[in-house]
Design goal:
signal; 530 residues; 34% strand; 14-stranded antiparallel beta sheet; alpha+beta; outer membrane lipoprotein receptor (LolB), chain A; globular; 25% helix; Metallo-beta-lactamase domain-containing protein; RibonucZ/Hydroxyglut_hydro
Length: 530
């Protein structure tokens, strides 16, 4: 018995020593790989001694991650947002990072801000994110920023900072961060890195050049549950004793969309930079999401408009239906909860999106999680199914926590939803250059027209100004009231006057741009009415 016990203990000790040796070997291997990468970037001492790097260049974002195109088809041409006057400041000495750029849509957009080259100034100081607000003052950024245009927040800014290979390798060399054992993927060596703050990412080193070739991480996404982003680094060139890439392409794992492309004009190393420390007043400010509440206004019998996003609810004999779930997950949940209080005992069972664009479907996954049946044109079914079936295991949202099947009721030009209490007609918006498969609703009994982005995308410009009246006349509708997503409850005369002014302002913008030699997207304005 004693000899057997000794044998067992010896075996366990041997196994522990072997495991320890393997772990030590893995640790030695990963450090050697990262050290070789530092040498390839300019030398271990040089990489460790760098205080700051400033990148200058320009870039383009895929508008709404590919979810804002003319249709939901994977073959629809991609719309882009320019990012000019672009700078990235990597303050490695203090662990800070700044994203500076001026954004402008490269397609016709109804609001002036989309064509204003407005500056975006996003900063990370340790665990504190802050930015320049609308009034020019600094404001504390939320920890996770939910937006159909750009995912942002502390995690994203930290990942963008580590897209720079020098910042990345320095982080990998930091003993406070944890490296995985290396693994081979073709001609690359891949390592996982867990930062001391808890952020996780992976990166690949080219086996020949020893240079970083890609960086990969995950982030929550309102419409897609979560996304995996991979930034590919290319065109290494020497700057300030370091090698850094001239090209960055960040691709997401949905339709292989190139979400962000950054082109480098210059790097400067260890120069005087601005103090990026977060203002003291912001350090104690909240970074929590604001609480969203919804209020209802009756538009007509059995029809209500909800704020803040502009949903419209229809009452039928035994159920309710809601038009639009946009804005955010929080706004959608607030709207659904409010809708369920309007007629006690009647369940909310149907959801009618105006169109597929990610701002208008930011609450889509909440609707699916609540068991709602989606009612839309067949042209939207594919993208809606993709959105409903994506998983979010690392950042579970409402749908990941409460998986429900995707239920779809489709039509082409017209669908009548009718019972003993109400009739609501759904129509295709036809010939709208902003959204090919848009759907609007019409209530014959009260002559209420419900729309999103047909006439009321914004007050500033009207690039598809004829669409509303063309559609009304085509379907021979008698409209007395409009319940709009973006502009409240309106009368037809108000809408027509607004559209007329928007067409005129768009023509003036076209003329002003042409006078400067700029051939502006959407110009000349095509309108047979205004």
């Amino acid at each position: 018995m004693k000899s057997r016990l000794v044998h067992v203990l010896a075996t366990l000790l041997s196994g522990a020593l072997t495991l320890g040796a393997l772990q030590a070997q893995a640790s030695s291997d990963d450090k050697a790989i990262v050290t070789a990468a530092a040498e390839a970037l300019g030398g271990l001492d040089r990489v460790r001694s760098v205080k700051n790097i400033t990148l200058s260049g320009y870039g383009q974002y895929a508008y709404m991650f590919g979810g804002g195109n003319i249709s939901g088809s994977p073959e629809a041409p991609q719309k882009y947002q320019a990012a000019n006057d672009l700078k990235r400041v990597y303050d490695l000495e203090h662990g800070r990072f700044q994203q500076l750029e001026r954004r402008n849509f490269l397609f016709p957009f109804a609001a002036i801000f989309g064509h204003a080259y407005a500056q975006s100034n996003l900063v990370l100081d340790g665990d504190i994110g802050y930015e320049t607000g609308r009034e020019g003052q600094f404001v504390r950024s939320r920890k996770w920023i939910e937006s159909p245009l750009h995912i942002d927040g502390v995690h994203m800014r930290r990942m963008w900072m580590l897209n720079n290979p020098v910042a990345l390798v320095r982080a990998a060399l930091d003993p406070a961060n944890q490296l995985s054992a290396p693994r081979k993927e073709g001609d690359l060596t891949v390592l996982d890195l867990t930062l001391k703050q808890g952020d996780k990412l992976s990166f690949a080193i080219d086996n020949r050049s020893k240079l970083p070739t890609w960086v990969r991480w995950k982030n929550p996404h309102s419409n897609l549950g979560q996304v995996t982003l991979t930034t590919h680094l290319s065109g290494y060139a020497p700057y300030g004793g370091l090698k850094m890439p001239l090209g960055y392409v960040t691709r997401i794992d949905w339709r292989n969309v190139d979400y962000f492309k950054m082109y480098v004009d210059d790097y400067v190393v260890d120069t005087q930079i601005a103090d990026l420390a977060a203002p003291e007043a912001l350090r104690s400010a909240s970074d929590a999401d604001p609480v969203v509440t919804s209020e209802a206004t009756q538009v007509a019998p059995g029809v209500w408009r909800l704020t803040p996003y502009g949903n419209t609810v229809f009452e039928f004999a035994d159920h309710l239906a809601i038009y639009e779930l946009g804005g955010s997950h929080a706004a959608a949940k607030a709207a659904i909860d409010k809708a369920r209080t309007l007629v006690p005992g009647k369940p909310l069972t149907e959801y009618i999106p105006s169109h597929h664009h990610f701002d208008h479907t930011a609450g889509f996954r909440v609707g699916i999680a609540e068991g709602l049946t989606v009612v839309s044109r067949y042209g939207n079914e594919g993208i809606f199914r993709e959105m409903a079936e994506r998983r979010a295991p690392d950042y579970p949202d409402a749908l990941e926590k409460n998986r429900k099947p995707f239920k779809f009721r489709g039509f082409d030009d017209h669908l009548r939803m009718s019972d003993s209490k109400a009739t609501v007609d759904l129509y295709w918006a036809r010939a709208n250059t902003h959204m090919a498969d848009a759907v609007f609703a019409y209530v014959p009994a009260s002559k209420v027209f419900v729309e999103g982005d047909m006439a009321t995308a914004a007050k500033d410009y009207q690039f598809w100004g004829d669409n509303y009246m063309d559609t009304v006349e085509h379907y021979k509708l008698d409209v007395e009231t409009l319940s709009t997503v973006h502009m409240g409850i309106m009368k037809p005369a108000e809408v027509i006057e607004m559209v007329k002014g928007g067409v005129q302002r768009a023509r003036e913008r076209c003329a002003a741009e042409l006078a400067k030699g700029n051939y502006f997207p959407g110009c000349p304005i095509v309108s047979n009415r205004y």
